[in-house]
Amino acid sequence: MLKRLKNALYFPVAAYFGFFANIRLRRWKPRIVVITGSNGKTTALHMVEARLGAKARYTHHRNSSFGIPFDILDLETAAGSRWRWFALAFQAPLRAWGTAPSDTIYVVEADCDRPGEGKFLSEMLKPEVVVWLNCARTHSAQFEYTVRSGIFENVDEAIAYEYGYFLEHASKLCIVNSDDARIMGEAERTHATVSGITERDLQSYSVSIAGVEFELYGARYSLPYLLPQEAFRSIAASAAVAHYFGIQPTTDLSHFTQPPGRSSIFRGIKNTTIIDSSYNANTSSVEAILNLVKELPDKKWLVFGDMTEQGGYEGEEHEKVAQMIAHGNFARVMLVGPRSRKFVLPILEKSSVRVDSYIYPEEVVNALPNAIEGGEILVFKGARFLEGIIEHMLAEKKDVEKLCRREPVWQKKRAQWGV
């Protein structure tokens, strides 16, 4: 009942803050760049930030129908306090008519985790430039009713259509993944110039435990991070955005910082190497990480947590991932969560992979340190508070600050789960 009420009030309340955010936007008049898509939005935003630097303002950690208006209005989050909403509602009109920011470019990360979100945000932002690099089954459960009601034939079509609103409202330039048929189908909705990034633009890609190297358009980019091959599109898109704003793109991405939980590398206990990709997971992003770590030396372990918000597709999606893991050359796999036990475990048990299954992250916290011998590469991917498990595996406890979900509300939730 409470969940249904929250869903019913989501857009009416968001519209209140959006109204005042729109007033401030029209007074501010920045040139708006929207970065959207199912995976890799934050990485792409950080790539653009490495190019534009202080020339723009960025919506770090805010990508929703509430987060973006809050960012425009310089409002703090309401997380953890219901009464805080009343204070924020009072502050919103005051901020709308307050002094506008001086930044001339506004780079916005925008998500579509429910029907209507792309339409709501795109109509408010009216972006000059849109970057859309992938489209996958994220938040699928939220889109199921559009299929059941006959609005769309399948959830993939529903998700793509929602992201397509950003292209529809773009005024000048759309930078897209031209290898994705669904994205290109939605691109027919825009009157802006469409610039495609294709796999043919990637000339070479190599990975080691020290980082990755890409070659694009004859230029080499070396980064001390473990970025999946698909990240070449973010590099290419950031160069295109820089060029659009009159900045000559170079191969110097030294100002790029890897967002937390997106394949960060840490030194673990017993001389292990931790690859932290715990921020989120869907079939597409899991595939990208599994392909990435294939290039690394043997003695790799995978700690995989459930993929959430898949709704009626969760069995199908987990079984796809199970097949990938079975061919992933892992010495051992630890599954965390009821979905993984139900759908992934039966497939892995028929393979040659050594697999253990747990329901709660606390169980892995107790088992993993004793199970490793030393020197392993530990790959973490999925939900179920894997970042809480990683905390206990770090050799340098100060690295905890570099993990994802450090906010008090998440710390409280992890504590409830024993991590």
What do you see in this structure?
By secondary structure, the chain is an alpha/beta fold. The chain has 2 domains: 2-244, 3-Layer(aba) Sandwich (UDP-N-acetylmuramoyl-L-alanine:D-glutamate ligase); 264-416, Mur ligase, C-terminal domain (Protein-Tyrosine Phosphatase, Chain A, Alpha-Beta Complex). It contains 15 helices and 15 strands. The chain has helices at 2-28, 41-52, 67-72, 84-96, 117-125, 140-148, 155-168, 181-186, 232-244, 283-294, 314-326, 338-349, 361-371, 386-393, 408-416; strands spanning 31-36, 56-58, 105-110, 129-132, 173-177, 193-197, 202-208, 211-216, 219-223, 264-267, 273-277, 300-305, 332-336, 355-358, 377-381. It has a 6-stranded parallel β-sheet with strand order 2-3-1-4-5-6, sandwiched between helices. A 6-stranded mixed β-sheet has the order 10-11-15-12-13-14, with helices on both faces. Helix 10 (283-294) runs parallel beside helix 11 (314-326).
Lay out the secondary structure.
Elements: H1 2-28, E1 31-36, H2 41-52, E2 56-58, H3 67-72, H4 84-96, E3 105-110, H5 117-125, E4 129-132, H6 140-148, H7 155-168, E5 173-177, H8 181-186, E6 193-197, E7 202-208, E8 211-216, E9 219-223, H9 232-244, E10 264-267, E11 273-277, H10 283-294, E12 300-305, H11 314-326, E13 332-336, H12 338-349, E14 355-358, H13 361-371, E15 377-381, H14 386-393, H15 408-416
Parallel strand pairs: 1-3, 1-4, 2-3, 4-5, 5-6, 11-15, 12-13, 12-15, 13-14
Antiparallel strand pairs: 7-8, 8-9, 10-11
Descriptive keywords:
alpha/beta; 2 domains; six-stranded mixed beta sheet; UDP-N-acetylmuramoyl-L-alanine:D-glutamate ligase; Protein-Tyrosine Phosphatase, Chain A; globular; six-stranded parallel beta sheet; 419 residues; 15 strands
